Amino acid sequence: MPDPAPPPGWTPLTLAIAGDVMLGRLVNETIVTEGFAYPWGDVLPARDGADLFLINLECALAASTRRWSDGGEKAFYFRAEPSAVETLRLGRVDFVALANNHAGDFGDEGLAETLRVLDEAGIAHAGAGPTLGAARTPARLTSNGVRVAVVALADYPRAWAATDRSPGINFVTPDVTDAGFGDVRSAIAEARRDADVVVFSIHWGPNMRVRPTAAFRAFAQQVIDAGVDIFWGHSAHVVQGIELWHRGVILYDTGDFIDDYAIDPELRNDLSALFFVRVAPSGVEQVELLPVQIDDMQVNVARGPAREWFVRRVSTLCAEMGTEAVVVPGRETLTVRPAAVESA
Questions:
Q1: Given this model, what pLDDT does residue 76 score?
Q2: Domain limits of the chain?
Q3: Residue 286 in contact with residue 277, Cβ under 8 Å?
Q4: What backbone torsions phi and psi does residue 62 show, to the nearest 5 degrees?
Q5: Which CATH number fits domain 19-338: 3.30.499.10, 3.60.21.10, 3.40.190.10, 1.20.970.10?
Q6: Closest by alpha carbon to 296, among 27, 33, 76?
Q7: Geometric angle at alpha carbon 257, from 252 and 261, rounded to 5°
């Protein structure tokens, strides 16, 4: 049975949202030597300020080592031992998105094992499953009586698209036409049923792109208009601008959060943020960012020149979206608000 509806005027809920969390390769090796909590660095106290914690899990959690094959075109395969789920538990992760281009790196067996490991750990997930129906099913979470639904989709790889008879991811082509947006609209409507807050997760677009295209912006805005409170994008490996659209917020790309990736010296994919979004019955009330830095397979609060670089970059990108990222004296977080309009 669905959770009982909260009373009218329910207390605002704060969601902590992070981008890509990749626990495989060198991160997996480091967990073995340094412990399950190591990847979180010093950010966990900040997580305590949120009611729920959502991440994009960009690896399989599986003992199976048999890789999915596309004829040699796929360059990277990410897998962590099933025991690495303890890292997610220690981080008090409530939800992981699985609609991405690494959930199926170790084939149907690896995906099935990942789903089983998450279920056994009590971590909600969406975006992949044994059938298309399962992959499309929104995750439903409750905190303080407030009901949250999360749908997860990805625009790549098409070869992994789940069907009625085969496992895979919840594949979508971002499209604002009536024909192309129909399935997305239906997914949002299903998530909205028996939910007070709806989050739309999508792994989309090319890597290392600083700005979304005009087509992507139109799609994200249409998603909000269809009934979503929080649009949560990831895949580019760098944080993009943030747009406040009607009663919701669009996080076009939330960047990386934990990984072992090479660092682009110009794009600085080692710098991102933990995003805090407070939602009330009237819609999104507040958006804050805690700048973070990835180093040595660990995420920590960004400080000094690294923080200053990130603040300048995100401020520039937000300004292009009609918002501003404001530094509040004495606080580590930035507040995103509508840009001030200068009078003539």
A1: 95
A2: 19-338
A3: yes
A4: -155, 145
A5: 3.60.21.10
A6: 27
A7: 105
Which DSSP category does 177 fall into? Answer: S
Residue 255 CB: number of other CB atoms within 10 A? Answer: 28
Say which amino acid occupies 123. Answer: I
Q: Determine how β-strand 124-126 pairs with β-strand 95-97.
A: parallel
pLDDT, tens digit, 9 for 90 and up, residues 64-104: 999 998 766 688 999 999 999 999 999 999 999 999 999 99
pLDDT band at 3 (very low <50, low <70, confident <90, very high): very low
Average pLDDT of the chain? Answer: 95
**Secondary structure string (H, E, C) spanning 58-120:** CCEECCCCCCCCCCCCCCCCCEECHHHHHHHHHCCCCEEECCCCCCCCCHHHHHHHHHHHHHH
Predicted TM-score (pTM) of this structure: 0.96
Phi, psi of 7 (to 5 degrees): -65, 160
